[in-house]
Structure formats: C-alpha cells, structure tokens
Amino acid sequence: MKVYEVIETKELFCGEIMEDYYIIYEQTENKVFEMKDNYLFQKESFVERTINIYKGNSNSTLQKVQTYPIKDIRNVRKIIVNDFPGLFKKVQFAS
What we know:
Layout: E1 2-12, E2 21-36, E3 39-55, E4 63-69, H1 76-83
C-alpha cells in the first residue's frame, strides 16, 4: 500500500506569469507499507519535491500541464522558460 501526504504547497511567480496559469511548488512524503503477519510495516519512505504547472480559470477545473521533479528550486524559472517561453510576462535573469 502506498500513502502520499502533502507536506507543503505554495504558489510561485504570482503576477509574473500569464493569466489562467499557475505554478505550484509541492512537497510530498511518500510511504510504502507492507502487510506481514497481520501487521502493517513501513517498508520505504521518501520526500518528493515537484513544480506543477496548471492551466484553468474560475469557470473551469485546473488541468495539469507539466510536472518537474526538482532538487534545486533556484533553477526552476530557467527550466520553465526553456519549455514554455511565453508563460512569463517578462523574462529577466541576473548575469
């Protein structure tokens, strides 16, 4: 049995991206359990960090456009701009 628990979630780049798009950071704890002799044992546990891009508006359900597993949140903007160049209203990178 697998259990997914959302530990943290927050919206990134508010006001910097095109209307009807949302970039959400999500930290999830994933646990794998196994049943042995009528007892439930935790077999594995790990934390996963992702950036999810959603599209939608107040009249529709959000649809996931893309998910990026992340190790370093500092490079997220560059990765997203690479795949979705028109998503940000203004693209500026520090030299």
